[in-house]
Amino acid sequence: MRLICLFLMLVSREILCVIWMLMLISLPSLMGNLVHTPASTWPRMQKMTPLHFNDYWVLCFIPGYLVGYVSHRRPKVAPCESVVTEDPSENIPLHPSTSLDWGDLKRLLSEKLSAEAFDRKFSDYGMDSHDAGSSEDEILAVKVKTVFEQQRMNPWTDQLFVKVDTPTSNKIMFGSDVIGTPQGYLAYSATGTKQGRVVYANYGLPKDLEYLVHLKINLDDCVVLLRAGKISYAEKVANVAKHNAAAVLIYPDPSDYDFTSSTELYGHVHLGSGDPYTPGFPSFNHTQFPRVQSSGLPTVLAQTITADMAVKIFLKMTGGEAPSDFIGKLKGLSTYKLGSDQDQVTVTVSNALVEKRIHNVFGVIKGFIDSDRYVVIGAQRDSQKGPGFAKSTVGTALLVELARGISEMVNKDGFRPRRSLVFASWSAGDYGSIGATEWLEGYLSSLHMKAFTYISLDGVIRGHEMLKASASPLLFSFISYTFLKYKYVLFFSFPLPQNSANYPYFGTILDNKINLDSSTSHKLGRVAVTAAQLAGQMALTLVHDHLLMLDVNKYKNTISSRVNKIYLLIDEIKLAGAVNDSVSAALIADWLTSATGSYRRAANDLSTAAKSSDLENVEACRILNDRYMKVEYNFLSPYVSPKDVPFRHILWGSGDHTLAALLDHLTALKGQTPGTNLDKLRNQLALATWTIQACANDLMGPIWEMQNEI
């Protein structure tokens, strides 16, 4: 199972990307679409007796980051209009009750959740089809809103008008032979017809493409054949586009996906999140922004094909044999070829953009002290194709059951949370977390200092045998504390990895209750209870405790390791004589190292202040918590436009503003690669320095306490 909690640091379209904690997400997923950490690199925490599920994710962000009209007439359904209900807090004492301790809260939450209730919800919310903006999607929205109304959660809705891609007639040909007309598709692909030499490039990882370049295989205007897995579709297409390919074909290899060879794949290739035609601003009705395209939209054609179609292509391919790590398990193939000039493939993609009206549905349980600070718990409601049971139905069921259970704890059992809980049901999640991202973009000025954690329930249950957490380093300690109480095999990574080895059915019509139940050894209801308890306990901790469990010290080593690599690489460049004396004198990282030291001192200062704080002093706790909340937000580069750069985090984002890009530029300079630019490099150093220094300054607190530390 997977949960993701994100530290709301999305300022723009980073929603489901960096501020997630682990319960997911990713804005993302939601946010996810960053440079992902392979599973083999995850620090292994503590091995204990495994339970029967896999991947409980929590993504945490700090809003600065957090994350239509249909073309045909639909049956009328009940409208998602706001309803004014009585505020249950009006008749509740102002100050939190001290009669319930943490043990009481855990017991109450456990009593509210049952396998039988989840089984009923799975049946109630399960649908064979519920694409974003469809009548089925709106029916589900009404059901969720009704639950919020019954629990007196003051529900409301947001209406958005977004652009989504729909398939028409796509076709693949090898020479004059038709390989197939796939029903699966990749939303937001470029459209048209392209012909070129077909080249097999394994998963489309940078190292895979570099291997081909090393073999002197030119990818210009080629059709690149890839197998699915390891990274997202969007990342695969973006990697190939850097080599000027004409088109990308992606198929599921039996070595990674255990389903029938005729199974179609569905997904999207927007390297970002939200509506790609309103980058950086919301898709509310009647907004006057001009229609523009996100920089994350691909310029190459992208299409999924079945394993059967891939076999047909491979059987016709010539050229050299692929290396052993490129070889999968396609039936009927004795070898995998890399391709040659005579292997000409034609790809036609004719997807059509349509505008759809979608609804996000919200409910709130108000806090009693810091009611304007809140945790957001969210779940995707739609499915691009088929039931989408594990991806959206399970999350929606968990969302409404947690809302019901925690509401009853407040209304009937005397629980008085310090902070508020917002429950959100998102639409258009399968197209790149559109609903969540557009909401963040619409209310960013309000959210970035109020919503401090996002817990995403998307794809929360995936299989069995282990638990994985993907989170901001700020949340590692918090997640360990929560998860290890359940005796899981726990792994950590950030950003969120893309593999779903134990449950391969995401993005197919096979994502249904039967397959998920089988993946959980027919204990789906029990696993759902455990997932809800984990998510609920994390949420309750975050709204109950005086101080937020965000460990700013965890970022000290993360930043230092990156900066040390930069410092050492600059020394290597100078020692190798890769630059002349004037360039060498200008190439220094001392100020970047100094900024890293400033962050370390600020983190130590905050930890000391927290340990000596008076927990009964409400204002003092609020000031300390505000300092915690701003860390992830301050790691978003203020020097790049959210319209042009979807992921602005200098550590986990992508683009020239990141420390990873700075390292790449230095590596190119060391190798005397043509095109290196010293002025650009110095600018990267300066902007990275001041992003880290600004974060340290804000973490330190009031300006009179900095004492000229800059």
Automatic annotation (TrEMBL):
GO molecular-function terms, A-Z: transferrin receptor activity
Family, similarity comment: Belongs to the peptidase M28 family. M28B subfamily.
Post-translational modification (record): Stearoylated.
Family annotation (InterPro entries): PA_dom_sf, PA_domain, Peptidase_M28, Peptidase_M28B, TFR-like_dimer_dom, TFR-like_dimer_dom_sf
Keyword Phosphoprotein belongs to the record: no
Start and end residues of each Peptidase M28 domain: 360-465
Membrane topology: Single-pass type II membrane protein
Positions of the Transferrin receptor-like dimerisation domain: 590-699
Record domain PA: where: 195-260
SUPFAM superfamilies assigned: PA domain, Transferrin receptor-like dimerisation domain, Zn-dependent exopeptidases
Entry keywords, A to Z: Cell membrane, Endocytosis, Glycoprotein, Lipoprotein, Membrane, Palmitate, Receptor
Task performed by this protein: Cellular uptake of iron occurs via receptor-mediated endocytosis of ligand-occupied transferrin receptor into specialized endosomes. Endosomal acidification leads to iron release. The apotransferrin-receptor complex is then recycled to the cell surface with a return to neutral pH and the concomitant loss of affinity of apotransferrin for its receptor. Transferrin receptor is necessary for development of erythrocytes and the nervous system. Acts as a lipid sensor that regulates mitochondrial fusion by regulating activation of the JNK pathway.
Entry-linked PANTHER family: N-ACETYLATED-ALPHA-LINKED ACIDIC DIPEPTIDASE, TRANSFERRIN RECEPTOR PROTEIN 1
Name assigned to this protein: Transferrin receptor protein 1
Subcellular localization: Cell membrane; Melanosome
One example of a Gene Ontology biological process annotation: intracellular iron ion homeostasis
GO cellular component terms listed in the entry, alphabetical order: external side of plasma membrane; melanosome
Gene3D superfamilies the record matches: 3.50.30.30, Transferrin receptor-like, dimerisation domain, Zn peptidases
Top-level lineage group: Eukaryota
Subunit structure: Homodimer; disulfide-linked.
